[in-house]
Amino acid sequence: MAVAPPAGGSRRILLEANVERLDIAAIVAQVVDACASRGISVRMLESTSGSVATGTGVESVANTPLAADGCELVLVLGGDGTFLRACQYAHAADVPVLGVNLGHVGFLAESEISSLRGVVEQIADRDYRVVERMTVEATVMHGEKVLGQDWALNEVSIEKVSRQGVLEASVEIDGRPVSDYGCDGMLVSTPTGSTAYAFSAGGPILWPELDAILVVPNNAHALFARPMVVAPSSRVAVETGVRSGPAVVVLDGRRLVDAPAGSRVEVIRGRRPVKWVRLDDSPFTDRLVTKFELPVTGWRGRSAARPLP
Description:
Layout: E1 2-3, E2 11-17, H1 24-37, E3 40-45, H2 46-52, E4 59-61, E5 73-78, H3 80-93, E6 97-101, E7 111-112, H4 116-124, E8 129-133, E9 136-142, E10 145-152, E11 155-160, E12 167-173, E13 176-183, E14 185-189, H5 197-200, E15 213-218, E16 228-230, E17 236-240, E18 247-251, E19 255-259, E20 264-269, E21 274-278, H6 284-292
Parallel strand pairs: 2-3, 2-5, 3-4, 5-6, 6-7
Antiparallel strand pairs: 1-8, 8-21, 9-10, 9-20, 11-14, 11-18, 12-13, 12-17, 14-15, 15-16, 17-20, 18-19
Helix pairs in contact: 1-4
């Protein structure tokens, strides 16, 4: 679903940067100066602004879920890890997020650092569109007690804490049992996350325009260990065995909820999607080929004499 960017009023963006980059201070200064010249103020988290933005006139705010309130968008300078961290603020404020890749693959980024000046110009001119990316929500329970609830853009990973033995996991879809597994863990992913941890665990790639939930056993010792793609309205539950020891539920590789043996993790479609800035209309296929460096030298394309039906 595409929505139009906001228009009018005082303009402000939240800038989230990978401060571990040695050259990030100069890059941040470039962004701040370019935004200021176009009447856009820049806000940064206190935890990062002190490292890179001294003297630049950047507004510093506390590291809370409200950090992006009042901003037009969240601009991310970094790799996928920085992008996922920034999504927490964009999601809480219901504002779009735009990634500029400073990392390696940067699958979630919309642009590369070499095009940074052009990105700022597009922001200033509101020359972008906003699409929605599906999220998932997880509830972790032990008996009748709710241990935690959180959301994820990429995936919910249920993992065994101890490296010894396997995680005993029973998977349920829409209130009906599917199979028991002895595995390293279970992944419940969105289409966006299908190119991340779920892909490494042998799951299929789902185009982000598709609404679906992906269930991937991670290194399962079972005859039936294939990934499953289920409806976006489905409720996926994973119950951990009482003899397999404690587990941990990891959301987007960042936020953790402890799950004692015998816990139940229920995952459903998120109530709020992540708003995602698109700077052009290039298809996901091109991104896939570019980021994974897929060989396409044998491709000849469709002849003009044979147009699409």
